[in-house]
């Protein structure tokens, strides 16, 4: 497996960590990329990768194996995540998107393709709508198109405070067991290595999610207030939607409740079909019987689809 370079970039008022896959770039002896690092190094457009909530840039390691030989890749730890800074404020989608724009400018990046997963897909959506000239292609991997205010029975307070998993775990083994339940697919040592970057070890032997609970609440509050549906008509670049759902049947009604995995999958399929109609240049890769973390479960299928999309 090709090992990416780990580095940091000052993006406005926040310092972001990122991973970089590009064997063609000459690195400086100090280990920092120069602002001109991406000038005239390749004809292939760089790809910026944005992870989901509580994950890290490492979540893209398996997918990167299928992309980096054709495109330079940069995967950021978003504000508050991984090894990036954790300021007390700035967790709305617009600020997080502008962090990436600032980081791109410092690194000398011009137009890029952007791939986002989950919450990172919502960040990517905002970024592409606000900076259309900088985004050549947009890939939204299992993006939560369904705004939580429209979930049956959901309230603002419940959504902001509700967490599927605890912040503290008694051990690494307990954490991994919880994720195996949440990600019901075959595990490998590579996947385990990736998800362990989502936590930090504490002196007493317990482990803690790197994203602090109060920051996750701030992010969830921003998601509640955001109006995702207003962005799709503003997209001018080609868009690939990759929902972990099956294509809805003609005339199929959306589920009346959103409590179980199959109901969420059906709702995701319905919303993906709806937003696809609102986007000027849009295609959909339906991924039924797939968990939310498509980049971990089916990286080769996703990688091949992204390469084909970028070359069309």
Q: Classify the secondary structure makeup into a structural class.
A: alpha/beta
CATH architecture: 3-Layer(aba) Sandwich
Which strand order spans the largest sheet, edge to edge or round the barrel? 1-2-4-3-5-6-10-11
Helix count equals 10
H/E element string? EEEHEHEHEHEHHEEHEHEHH
Summed over residues and divided by their number, the pLDDT gives a mean of 89
- CATH C-level name: Alpha Beta
Which outline best applies?
Answer: globular
Biggest beta sheet attributes: 8 strands, mixed
Tell me the span between the first and last alpha carbons: 27 Å
The CATH superfamily turns out to be: Alpha/Beta hydrolase fold, catalytic domain
Write down the CATH topology.
Rossmann fold
Q: Regions with pLDDT < 50 over 5+ consecutive residues?
A: 26-42
Output the radius of gyration. 19 Å
Helix content: 25-40%
Instruction: Report the count of strand segments.
Output: 11
Number of domains: 1
Q: Any overview of this molecule?
A:
With 312 residues, the protein is of the alpha/beta class. It has a single domain (5-153, 213-311), classed as Rossmann fold. 33% of the residues lie in helices and 16% in strands. It is built from ten helices and eleven strands. It has helices at 61-64, 93-106, 119-130, 156-161, 172-182, 189-195, 213-225, 261-278, 294-297, 299-311; strands at 5-11, 14-21, 47-50, 73-76, 112-117, 135-141, 168-169, 199-201, 207-209, 239-242, 282-284. The longest helix is centred in the last third of the chain and has 18 residues, at 261-278. Residues 26-42 have low confidence and may be disordered. It holds the Pfam family Abhydrolase_1. This is AB hydrolase-1 domain-containing protein.
